[in-house]
Amino acid sequence: MKAEIVHMTAENIDKESLKRAGRILQEGGLVAFPTETVYGLGGNALDFKASKKIYAAKGRPSDNPLIVHIADMESLPKIVKELPPKAKILAEKFWPGPLTMILPKSDAVPLETTGGLNTVAVRFPSDPIAQSLIRYAGGYVAAPSANTSGRPSPTLAEHVEEDLGDAIDMIIDGGQVGIGLESTIVDFTEDVPVVLRPGYISLEMLREVLGEVRMDKGLLKTDSKIHPKAPGMKYRHYAPKAELSIVEGESGEVVAAINRLAKEAKAKGETVGIIATDETAEQYTAGLVKSIGKREEEETIAHHLYEVLREFDKYQVSAIYSEAFYTPRMGQAIMNRLLKAAGHKIIKAQEENEK
Ligand code: AMP
Ligand code: MG
Description:
With 355 residues, the chain is α/β, with parallel strands linked by helices. Helices cover 33% and strands 18% of the residues. Residues 64-67, 102, 114, 117, 119-121, 144-145, 182, 185, 196-197, 230-233 line the site of adenosine monophosphate (AMP). Its EC number is 2.7.7.87. It comes from Candidatus Blautia faecavium.
């Protein structure tokens, strides 16, 4: 099966194609579509067979639950047992938008969709194409990121085609997504809300609205035996084919260390890629250098992260050295993805330079 590809923009929605896509979903098929975070691989969330198809198409472990996407608040009561007051406050503040909430599930949601859990992850995306598709599909679309399991999430329709073009029915090409990193996930099954995955909506933004909010311990202690609570966060993920190392420290030290490491790797026959920023790109002397964005505008780094990792796959580099991006607002989300892509391989620039 080759996926049919249809093109549209948020400003110029092709309703007829979306109606057709909605019908495909209602009949149990799979359609990839743009959202403001990354591209999603949609199936009818209330149809256990469609959820099974999603896992099969992605090669996703079946204990890694799917996020159910809705397109209005009225759709929520059918799929959740209750909406805790704090969750209601967040919904009013951040929906539609890049926020996913974990809530107790109702019987309408099959266990295949939730990976066997009695909770369900729910998101109301702001992307107009996504919203329209969800309505045509009957209101409930399960959609993980539309990549093969383990690969970087897709931020362009071409990425989806690369991974899933032969495995799904339709791809809606809405151009490049806005944010480029997956939604922030907040768990409401404990007294204090817990962030299970950092995203565009930061811990500080959540605390401003709710007061006390915790970060999942499994996210903070990267090499401990504490597992993250979101089943999907324990897998190596977002990963390019090459060995990726993150080099951290003061900017000048980082450039010097990467230049040395790149030279050494090259001498050993490796093809080297370097993830730089606009501020540093010209200071690198070896390897294929790609600027991921501007430190001064940190959204540009989030926006290009997955695209850069996929580009290096295309060039078949075997070793990638990346600067670290502990930027003030989105640094937590960016570094969470980059660390997982690198299998937590971090090099301290200063120690490297003292060798
Ligand atoms: P993706 O669909 O690729 O954005 O990944 C969805 C993420 O949400 C994974 O990390 C899942 O483990 C997590 N998730 C989905 N449903 C639940 C749930 N009921 N409880 C905890 N985490 C969840
Ligand atoms: Mg994913």
